[in-house]
Specification:
The complex is a heterodimer of chains A (129) and B (314).
Chain A (H helix, E strand, L loop, with lengths): L5 E9 L1 H10 L10 H6 L9 H16 L4 E9 L7 E13 L2 E10 L2 E11 L5
Antiparallel strand pairs in A: 1-3, 2-5, 3-4, 4-5
Chain B lengths: L2 H10 L5 E7 L6 H11 L52 H11 L4 E11 L9 E10 L3 E2 L3 E14 L2 E15 L18 H8 L4 E5 L5 E2 L14 E5 L3 E10 L11 E8 L4 E7 L11 E8 L5 E7 L2
Parallel strand pairs in B: 12-14
Antiparallel strand pairs in B: 1-3, 2-6, 3-5, 4-5, 5-6, 7-8, 7-9, 10-11, 10-13, 11-12, 13-14
């Protein structure tokens, strides 16, 4: 694990099912995450993924790569282009810094519209908790 | 202080006020909710299953969500979970008041923009999460692609018993959707040094015709010199406003954002003899005919734009 290491990309098909399942699993019943008609009334072309699902997918991306013994210490994300149904998001990551057994990783999720999410995580590898 | 500054000052007063105080998560950390989350995320990490399971750290906010039913003491029915702030137990009214103020200002839509979390220790099934949320900041008015509004940042400290287990900073944009803004403004006339006098007249509700001081010929549109004699000197004559439709078109297509087709555009011959373009009003677009008598009037399209239009006379 060295600064500059690239994580293999993860391709996430942004299905309507993923958006709704993610919203419900995160207890988020905002209508814009499950009701296309109400989403349109609020100026959105369709339902879109909630931030908690994006957060969960980024977390999964990191722990998939660093392994089940790794421990996420912090995660900061910012959303940009929304994830609408039918799009595909590709997550990529790069190790920015390494401090002992803890890496700082920059993550980007890009969809057909642009950068959906940019974020920074700190993750401890090797299971020290 | 204008209205916007007044609103911003009202909003800023919420900074530092609590949004939730010693609130309790609706459910203790539990395996079924963890499993549902992992199914949705496609997360097969074995750390989240089995007798020593921990919750995915990114579920932190989930344990604070109010869910569909809201919480006690509230009307419930389809109330939004307000971006993760539980309404359970001791709950400050400040956050509701802040959102209501923004709603009243037209910022009725909400979108989450930032989430910053620190995970101090893993959460395990059985952990009862309590949390305190403070309104950290409310931004000045910002214009984004989505619309114009204010960013609201909250910070939540999550505890199990006395122990801080995680922190969660969350930013939403409360905004007025760009889509619901009024019809876009009508295009502005191109005002230059040769025609500025005409538009100054329109502002005073006067229709001014240029007159050559060399040969007395009237002309419109305004030009720097006379087409009849070449003389550069001129003065103006105030038009009576009487005219007839000399020719016209009805615009059906293409639609243009500031206009509402179909509408008639006429070339009007003024009583003084010159011709001007303008919309015909006061009659359906399909009733406009050559020879129709019209009279000039001035219509304010917005705070900055007044144009002469032609109303059917008599």
């Amino acid at each position: 694990m060295r600064p500059g290491d690239e994580l293999p990309p993860l391709t996430v098909p942004v299905t309507r099912t993923l958006i709704v399942a993610g919203a419900l699993a995160s207890r988020d019943y905002q209508d814009v995450h499950h009701d296309p008609e109400l989403a349109r009334e609020k100026g959105s072309p369709d339902i879109f993924m909630n931030i908690l699902t994006t957060n969960g997918l980024v977390g999964r991306y990191l722990t998939d790569h660093f392994g089940p013994a790794s421990v996420l210490r912090s995660l900061s994300i910012r959303l940009g282009a929304p994830n609408y149904p039918g799009d595909t998001m590709v997550l990529t990551g790069r190790v920015e810094a390494v401090d002992g057994d803890t890496a700082t990783v920059r993550v980007t999720g890009t969809n057909g519209l642009g950068a959906h999410v940019t974020g920074t995580a700190r993750i401890t590898v090797g299971g020290a908790s | 202080m204008d209205r916007e500054e007044h609103l911003t000052a009202q909003l800023k007063a919420f900074e530092g006020r609590p949004a939730a105080t010693r609130a309790t998560g609706k459910d203790p950390v539990n395996l079924p909710m963890i499993r549902h989350w992992c199914e949705a995320m496609g997360d097969t990490n074995p750390a989240y299953t089995g007798p020593d399971a921990v919750a995915p750290p990114t579920m932190l906010q989930v344990w604070t969500m109010a869910g569909l039913s809201g919480h006690q003491g509230l009307s419930g029915q389809g109330r939004s979970p307000h971006q993760g702030l539980s309404r359970h137990q001791v709950r400050s009214a400040a956050y509701d008041d802040l959102l209501a103020l923004l709603d009243a200002a037209g910022c009725t839509s909400v979108v989450a923009t930032d989430c910053e979390q620190e995970y101090l220790r893993p959460l395990r099934p059985g952990d009862e999460v309590t949390f305190d949320t403070v309104i950290e900041s409310v931004s000045d008015r910002k214009t984004t692609k989505l619309g114009t509004g204010h960013f609201v940042t909250t910070r939540t400290d999550l505890r199990v018993g006395p122990d801080l287990v995680g922190t969660h900073r969350f930013r939403i944009l409360k905004y007025a959707p760009a889509r619901t803004r009024k019809t876009p403004p009508r295009p502005r006339p191109v005002v230059n040094r040769d025609n500025a006098g005409f538009w100054e007249g329109v502002r005073r509700h006067e229709l001014l015709i240029q007159r050559c001081t060399g040969c007395e010929v009237l002309r419109h549109p305004w030009l720097p010199g006379c087409n009849a004699c070449g003389c550069p000197d001129w003065d103006t004559v105030r038009a009576s406003g009487e005219g007839t439709v000399y020719s016209y078109v009805v615009m059906h297509h293409p639609p243009f954002p500031a206009f509402d087709p179909p509408y008639a555009v006429a070339l009007v011959e003024l009583a003084e003899g010159v011709r001007m373009l303008g919309n015909v009003v006061g009659v359906p677009y399909d009733k406009v005919r050559i020879g129709l008598p019209v009279r000039a009037e001035f219509r304010a399209y917005d705070d900055e734009l007044t144009l002469p239009v032609w109303r059917v006379a008599g």
